[in-house]
Amino acid sequence: MSDEHESSGTLTEPQEGQAVGDQEPEQQEKRKLEISVEIQDVGPCKKHLKVTVPRHEIERQFDESLNSFQREAQVPGFRPGKAPKQLVVKRFRKEVAGQVKSSLLMASLEQIDEDYHLDPITQPKLDLEAVTLPDDGPMAFEMDVEVRPDFEVSEYRGIKVKRPVKTIREPDVEAQFERFLERYSQIVPKLEGAAKIGDYLTADLEFLRPDGSVLSQAKEIEFRLQPELRFQDGHIPGIGPAIEGAKAGDVRVVEAKLGSAAADPELRGKSVQVRVTLHDLKQLRLPEVNAAFLTSIGFDSLDELKDAVRDALKRRHESQQKQAVRRQVLDHLIGQTPFELPADLVARQEKSTIARLVMELRKEGFSDEEIRAREAEIRANAHESTLRSLKEFFILAKIAEGAGIKVEEEDMDLEIEGMAARSDESARRIRARIEKEGLADSLATQILERKALEHILGSVEFEDVALDEPETAVETVDQTASPAVAGEPEQD
Fold first, then answer.
1. 438 domain residue, yes or no
2. What's the per-residue H, E or C state across the chain?
3. What domain range is 372 assigned to?
4. In a domain? residue 290
5. pLDDT interval class at 49 (50, 70, 90)
6. Are residues 54 and 136 located together in one domain of the fold?
7. Structure confidence by residue, pLDDT tens digits, 328-352
8. Quick one: 444 and 486 in the same domain?
9. More confident of the two residues 31 and 274
């Protein structure tokens, strides 16, 4: 898997002492170890392994490792390779024992990987320091391994999907045109009138417990009044209508809904009251659209600018249409393919899921403000988003495997070139950033999932449905409603 889902692994990673690769070629020839392996299911996607290496295997490996040391050992008074065996054993016993242990562990893990096909999704949890090489008797070690979930993919051919279709009308273009102009606007004091959607407010936010006491507060924060306000662990869906008409000094009370990212477990999924005290109002002053302004932003005429706005709207709708179709297909597959995932795997992946979804939004051309709003929503429900993301990955990966779908180097090149075209950056710079930030596996996972989904969509049945609902504008603040409670670690 990618870094956002943990890297796929074989059971060959742990090493201690001298690596097997440093031994002579004849010592690297594979041979079957007579090891005993007990495997138990200990939870969703988890297996516990108990491995026993018999004494005769230890002695055999000890002889091989000792021979290697004896050929190269530097012992005072003897030429290299000529020191007596017993003297080499006495002088280098610790080093030889370390190599024996490392070699037996490596060989055992490789053999388990070949014989049992556990299909691990992470490297095994093996405490190397706890593994000892005894003077007598067998060597034993235990470890936990996270493996891919075992399930059968439900039939996906012929799935019925409703495809939203939207006609871009002039009011849509005008609304988007105004949003475009806002990039070049000024924020100025609003000296008259009351708050309305689109104004900038300076206000205190006090999140209240059911008994009326203050849960948390943010003093004099500035945010834009939109129909919805998101914060890092929840949102206020009706803040716009509730605050419209208010003036400096007014106090309004609205209801916030907390997500699963709330630090206090008692409040997750609950609603709390928010007291909003308004201190100041500002408004946007849009630029005058004249020849000088149009030239400054790279357009020759107003019609050309509006055509560009219309094209951007079409691309946005196409992206939303794909997301809606994707969601329906995956809803069907997840509903028909029940399997559990370990909670600690989901928890470890939450940060990676946020990073991945933000990268997807950036690839689709969302603005920084829109990405910030979406990111807040993702953070507020990070557990559910991550759980779904992991299930989507496992299902699509299994479909890809069954269909022989792979990610080739050419796929990576085309993806990076597409990102470069959308961002006006060079492909070389984007590639360098991906390598520097370790996002290559994440990108490969996205490509694999998309190719698998395209394979599925080739056999689904579409029904076009009209989509006329306007998008809800959202504002985001860097505030959490629920502070960390005693005994609970603070969330990132």
1. yes
2. CCCCCCCCCCCCCCCCCCCHHHCCHHHHCCCCCCCEEEEEEEECCEEEEEEEECHHHHHHHHHHHHHHHHHHCCCCCCCCCCCCHHHHHHHHHHHHHHHHHHHHHHHHHHHHHHHHCCCECCCCECCHHHCCCCCCCCEEEEEEEEECCCCCCCCCCCCEEEEEECCCCHHHHHHHHHHHHHHHCEEEECCCCCCCCCCEEEEEEEEECCCCCEEEEEEEEEEECCCEEEECCEEECCHHHHHCCCCCCCEEEEEEEECCCCCCHHHCCCEEEEEEEEEEEEEEECCCCCHHHHHHCCCCCHHHHHHHHHHHHHHHHHHHHHHHHHHHHHHHHHHHCCCCCCHHHHHHHHHHHHHHHHHHHHHCCCCHHHHHHHHHHHHHCHHHHHHHHHHHHHHHHHHHHHHCCCCCHHHHHHHHHHHHHHHCCCHHHHHHHHHHCCCHHHHHHHHHHHHHHHHHHCCCEEEEEECCCCCCCEEECCCCCCCCCCCCCCCC
3. 299-472
4. no
5. very high
6. yes
7. 999 999 999 988 888 778 877 777 7
8. no
9. 274
